[in-house]
Amino acid sequence: MTNAYAGNILHVDLSKKKIWKERLNEDLINNYIGARGINARLLWDNVNSDTDPLGPDNVMIFGAGVLSGTHAPCSGRLSAAFKSPATKAYFKASSGGYFANEMKFAGYDHIIIYGKSDNPVYLWIDNHNVEIRDASHLWGLTVTETDERLKSELKVERVERVESVIIGPAGENKVKFASLMTSSGSALGRGGGGAVMGSKNLKAIAIYGKGSLSVYNPVKFNEIALDARKKLQGDFFAQFLGAYGTGGFFEGMNAAGSLPSYNFIKASVEGAENISGQALVSKGYLKGRSGCASCSIHCHRFCTIDEGKYAGTYTLGPELETLSSFGNGPGIGNLEVIIKAGQLCNDYGLDTISTGSAIQWAIESVERNVMTKEQVDGLELKWGAEEAVLELIQKIALREGIGNLLAEGTKFASEKIGKDSYKWAIQSKGLEQSRCETRSSMAYALAFSISSRGPDHLHSQCMAEFGMYPEALALIKRITGDEKYANPALTEKRAEIVRWHEDNFALADCLGFCAFTNTAANALLEQEMTDMYNTATGIKVTPEELLLACRRIITLERCFNIREGLNRKDDKLPYRLMNEPINGSDICTNSPEILNEMLDRYFELHEWEVTKGCPTRATMEKLGLNDVADELDIQ
Amino acid sequence: MIKSILVDSNKCTGCLSCVLSCSFAHTNKFSMQSRINIKKIKREGRCEIYVCRQCNDAQCISVCPTGALKKDSVSGEVVFDSENCIGCKLCISACPYNAITFLDEKNIIEKCDLCGGDPICAKVCTTGALTFIETE
Ligand code: SF4
């Protein structure tokens, strides 16, 4: 088998209670690299447009990064793929933590779950021994409780090392944005993967790996990986993130007028310094930092509340997205409430972004008298309503009262309530937008509108467009020919910038690298990644060849959505962002005209057909996707 | 000059970079079978680091019945001679730092050898939890 890969796919059919293993074939490796890429191909092959995301025919696929398990910096990321109950389309979710490493050491690059169990079960993967076990005693437990129960009953040498992907009550209740949580507190948060696991009656997958991984050229690989670690350690962003976490960006975004606040009505708030990553440190809530496998940045937080109303709360987080989803988003300035909200979401297994967005939509609906107090179960729902927000989180997870409507997602809820409420439903393709003000960053606006999973920052992170540091300026110059394009207000060259970032984001996803290595920061680029890939696997490829494979993956993901009936008409942003200006301006910078101009160029660059944004036959043949073109009947 | 690994568990984030690098440096393969181990105490958000401190008054040396463990007076290292190890595990029980592991397949113990003078764990640790410094 190729070095660095574990070499196996684990198949588990919950309906038939069958488990089998298959060698990972070289075609998959050569065409789709690993993790996200191979997941995408497996998903394409295993579901179709008739598949109900919450029916037994949907599959849940996990993939470990090609370099996960090694000491390459920040290389331990896990990728999942499934048809999303939120978007009814292709979805990839990913997280840090240690699950990907344990998969590799247990001997698997990929795990595919098919079917549905009649009763609650969990999957126990102890290296070669894989068992479907009864989980009736775990059903209804929170994520933390489930992890602790599993660790108390599993019998292995070092049980604290057992890593699991777990759903909470929200996943069991098939909340459309229920997350998959890992033991280490990282979330495969978006798109409702938790609901897919819940629909299969699968409470958790616990894994423990005792094997080892070899690399093709240990001396060379070691040299390059240690160099990469050094480079990343010296990176300004990496140091900043280690100190203040992703929430460290909060105050700067606020000062720049690009911190989505009050359901994206405003782009900054008073008092941001009280609820930022810096505040977590200065106010003493931060008790520790957590590093994902082989991390050299350590941005993950561990916070506790020791006194007062929420004493005893502890959680891994909050991240920037959570601070904004439950802080300036609903107009809350109390950091303890935000920490508590994050903890509740993590324990119930809810995506903090979508949960916060659904709640902000409900608040605005009440504030605008589109929903009555009775419709929200008598809650005092208004901007800044701390207790009501915390209560809503629980109601959503348990599908109680108004929570049952919100659990369907903001798109569905606004269609149900009607009366123009779609105008403040901050979603597109069925996914609530992450906490990024796309009206002040044009590459982000384009990236969010074409993202196969909906308006979100993990399709491409075009951080370089802000030109905040020398590496970013150099990169923008390389992509566009001129540093002057490091300007987020420009629409020119955004398509070029987005395409570079989406290719490289895909590369990081396939190899298991965190976005803070190459797109959300720029310490390691395609050359370094290719050098690590080649010395680890023994495969000889150029950066261009790897990036071409990434293009194949992105095109396949696009094709998946085309098979579902999506096309250019769906490549848009939430209504508010496309129609309402911010920061006192009188033009909306995400207007359809502006987006269309960038979209035209983007499709042209991909050599896709422009009216529908559908890949052409010629482009697909160039990428070796002939069979996909046949299935879509593209002439 | 004696150099040793200074351990500050409070700074550890549990990233396992040290564990993976250690296994790799000693076997050319990555695994969790390593001469340094990290125990995560999730509820408290902290970690404990288990690695040899090359003690001056090393308990492991005193209990070892075969002389497989010795102090090198020049480097200060507690040196392990696998030829003499009978796998009795007395050193494992005696070590106050949980720093000695057992290798089932060879029926001997395994401990930190400072990678021959340039320990990789301290090189990959970016938090300051492990630093290789002059102690005497
Ligand atoms: S490398 Fe450092 S921070 Fe990471 S686990 Fe080891 S001691 Fe802890």
Task: Please tell me about this protein's structure.
The complex is a heterodimer of chains A (635) and B (136). By secondary structure, chain A is α+β, with helices and mostly antiparallel strands. Chain A is built from 26 helices and 18 strands. Chain A has a 6-stranded mixed beta sheet with strand order 2-1-6-3-4-5. In chain A, α2 crosses α19 and α19 (494-511) packs across α22 (543-563). Chain A is globular. By secondary structure, chain B is of the alpha+beta class. Chain B folds into 2 domains: 1-51 and 115-130, no CATH class; 54-111, 2-Layer Sandwich (Alpha-Beta Plaits), CATH 3.30.70.20. Chain B is 19% helix and 25% strand. In chain B, strands 1-9 form a two-stranded antiparallel sheet. Chain B has a two-stranded antiparallel ribbon with strand order 3-4. Chain B is globular, with a radius of gyration of 14 Å. The termini of chain B are close together. Chains A and B meet through β13, α7, β14 and β15 of A and α1 and β2 of B. Iron/sulfur cluster (SF4) binds at residues 12-18, 38, 47, 49, 124-125, 127, 129-130 of chain B.
Task: Considering the chains and any ligands shown, give keywords for the structure.
heterodimer; A: six-stranded mixed beta sheet; 26 helices; 13% strand; B: 136 residues; alpha+beta; two-stranded antiparallel ribbon; two-stranded antiparallel sheet; 4 helices; 9 strands; binds iron/sulfur cluster
What does the radius of gyration of chain A come to? 23 Å
Cα distance spanning the termini of chain B: 6 Å
Strand arrangement within the widest β-sheet of chain B reads 1-9
Strand content of chain B: 25-35%
Shape of chain B: globular
Helix content of chain B: 10-25%
